[in-house]
Amino acid sequence: MSETLAPPDALSTALPAAAAEIEAALDTLLPRPEGPEARLFEAMRYASIGGGKRMRGFLVLEGARQFSVSRAAALRVAAAIEILHAYSLVHDDLPAMDDDDLRRGKPTAHRAFDEATAILAGDALQARAFEVLAEEDTHSDPAVRAELVRCLARAAGARGMCGGQMLDMLAEEAEAPLDEPAIGRLQLLKTGRLIEFSAEAGAILGKAPSAQRHALAAYGRDLGAAFQIADDLLDATATAEQTGKRTGKDAEAGKATLVSLLGLERARLQAERLSEQAINHLDSFGERADLLRALAAYTVQRKS
Fold it and tell me: Which cofactor does it need (predicted)?
């Protein structure tokens, strides 16, 4: 894998620093528990605050930095995406979906509260994500806010994250395992679309030229594919203590992944190739995009 220009410790410093900023933004933007519906607010905050690398939010911040977007605006968009991502995890963990008991090293929302509260918390988190994007504090130009809302809706909906989850559920019932193109499409929808939008969002905020916006989107698309393969590799090889969630569940459920289809070594090579492709999309951004390059390299090397 090609070297990045960023110092070796730059990403290890930048990621947690950005995560802390995003956590603070989440704390501000999510409602405090009060009134008769306090339990719902508590579940929303439980699912969203504390834990996670905030990679999607980091992509927003670094993409926005390429176009000198204000940090406050970028943090609101980063937080909105993390709020929507939290909703997806709450619903994915439900017994009717992936039936998981552990997330980010703590009980999943339906275990900490109950299934009905978890469903409502997920619904409310999704609504709040779009509310944050639509508020004037996110950007003074209503056209920019509308574009952010439109693109996030597309990434999260039937042709994005929700569609991917449907394909994942159908695959479990299929008579024959999915082939490589079908697995690639499933993962693009379920995981990749939101990561792609996270990379592109900074360009939308910065009203960037279409070529640069497309380059960041392409970077995010390849990064998302590499990230999912790396996740599948961790599920096959890491422990629950290392990842903060139950591992081995794909093999247990008989799910077809690129790891099960290609084997560990070929899947690793595929992830590295996608990471290289992601890095190549950043050629026009110069040294300012070094942290994005470092993130692509880190994605396939991470241990959790």
Answer: Mg(2+)
Range in 21-35, 66-80, 114-128, 254-268 with the lowest mean pLDDT: 254-268
Q: What is the pLDDT of residue 1?
A: 41
Contact predicate 193/252, CB 8 Å: no
Map out the domains of the chain with their CATH numbers.
Answer: 10-299 (1.10.600.10)
**Rounded alpha-carbon distances, angstroms, from residue 135 to 65, 142, 177, 193:** 21, 9, 44, 23
47 vs 57: CA distance, rounded Å: 16
For 37, the token pair is 């519906």
Task: Write down the pLDDT at residue 61.
Answer: 98
Q: How many angstroms separate the CA atoms of 77 and 161, rounded?
A: 18
- The reported pTM is 0.91
Computed on alpha carbons and rounded to an integer, the radius of gyration of the chain in Å comes to: 18
Coil/strand/helix, residue 106:
strand
CA–CA dist 80, 162 (Å, integer): 17
In this predicted model, what pLDDT tens digit does every residue of 71-115 receive, in sequence order? 999 999 999 999 999 999 999 999 999 899 999 889 999 999 999
Full DSSP string of 32-83: PS-STTHHHHHHHHHHHSS-S--HHHHHHHHHHHTTT--HHHHHHHHHHHHH
Closest residue by Cα to residue 254 from 163, 192, 168: 168
